[in-house]
Design brief:
Length: about 350
């Protein structure tokens, strides 16, 4: 059994949104596995998020058999978690919306950004929203000495789907934009979340923005790593076959570090394996390789050779993890050791 730490162990959460109910506590809990996806036309929210320049059609809201929750009775952010490289997919009207974690560039916070939206700077803050930058959310850290800055300029609001949230602070309008405001705590600090929307698109986009705020996570960027290779090659003896296995492994790691697809492919035993391992060359990740140890050439009781490679990985958002993979090799028809798996 290898001693590797898999990077594929991140849990995926599915969140169900509807235009009538917003994001519930149960939706935030999610499910352990994704349900089978159903084909269909894009939802109003998904269409508006992808192309906010066209006002979406409105859909009649389904009748509800239960009364709306009482005002200030539901927490929008049930638990503010530390980011751990988990993932989220939103479901809006039966359409699954892929997301990627996106860190605030100024504050220790981050959101799960739908793939149809973008991150940019708005008035000195990090904003996440539609490509035309007309619909977006931002966070502001509040000064405890000044209280909830800007709260006096807010109207109490009348939307029962917003009034139910304990964090809801009120609403205001600026020109053709509707702005919904929430106040919440993260660690020891207090923040103000603002949802800015064009009035004609608010109904379609609000459930998605509410879910983004509801699933905000704490994320403190550590110092960046220095990527590259920082280990001494292990001793494999004088056997020519052992030396060739080591050379092939080092060539693979060097190509991996440099994201050199051609050299990386040259070390693989099959093109199919090369395709399967392309995720290692993802430009969103940088690696620092710290140690290479010998498992065996061959490993006792097998026909494969093996090495353990220990590394530190940093994502483009600044998230850092340590891990170890086992690099396995098998001989090809020419009797040369080639990479057979990295796991």
């Amino acid at each position: 059994m290898s001693k590797h730490t898999s990077l594929w162990g991140a849990a995926w959460i599915v969140l169900t949104l509807t235009l009538s109910t917003g994001c519930s506590d149960e939706a935030r809990q999610g499910a352990a596995s994704l349900p089978e996806r159903t084909a269909g036309q894009p939802s109003i929210a998904a269409t508006a998020a992808a192309d906010s320049t066209t006002a979406p059609a409105t859909a009649a809201l389904p009748p509800t058999a239960t009364a709306s929750p009482a005002a200030r009775s539901v927490k929008l952010i049930p638990e503010l978690r530390d980011y751990s490289e988990s993932g989220i997919e939103y479901e809006v009207d039966g359409v699954y919306i892929h997301t990627a974690f996106s860190a605030d560039q100024n504050l220790p916070l981050g959101v799960f950004l739908p793939e149809s939206m973008v991150r940019y700077e708005q008035d000195g803050r990090t904003a996440w929203g539609t490509a035309d930058k007309r619909n977006y959310i931002t966070f502001v850290k509040l000064d405890p000495a000044k209280g909830a800055a800007g709260k006096n300029e807010l109207q109490p609001g009348s939307d029962p789907e917003l009034l139910k949230y304990k964090e809801y602070a009120g609403s205001k309008r600026e020109d053709d934009q509707r702005i919904e405001v929430f106040i919440f705590k993260a660690k020891k600090d207090t923040y103000r979340a603002e949802i800015h929307m064009l009035e004609q698109q608010a109904e379609a986009l609000l459930p998605l923005f509410i879910s983004m705020v509801s699933n905000v996570e704490s994320f403190v960027k550590p110092p960046p790593i220095q990527p590259g290779i920082f280990f001494k090659a292990p001793d494999v003896g004088n056997n020519p076959g052992n030396k060739q296995a080591l050379r092939e492994t080092l060539a693979c790691i060097e190509a991996w570090s440099a994201r050199d697809k051609e050299k990386f492919a040259a070390t693989m035993i099959t093109p199919m394996l090369d395709d399967a391992l392309q995720f290692l060359l993802d430009e969103k990740n940088s690696y620092r390789f710290d140690e290479l140890t010998l498992a065996g050439i061959p490993i006792e009781g097998t026909q494969r050779a093996g090495f353990y490679i220990s590394f530190t990985r940093m994502t483009s958002e600044g998230y850092i993890t340590d891990g170890t993979y086992e690099i396995s090799l098998l001989k090809n028809k020419q009797g040369e050791w080639k990479i057979a798996n990295i796991d």
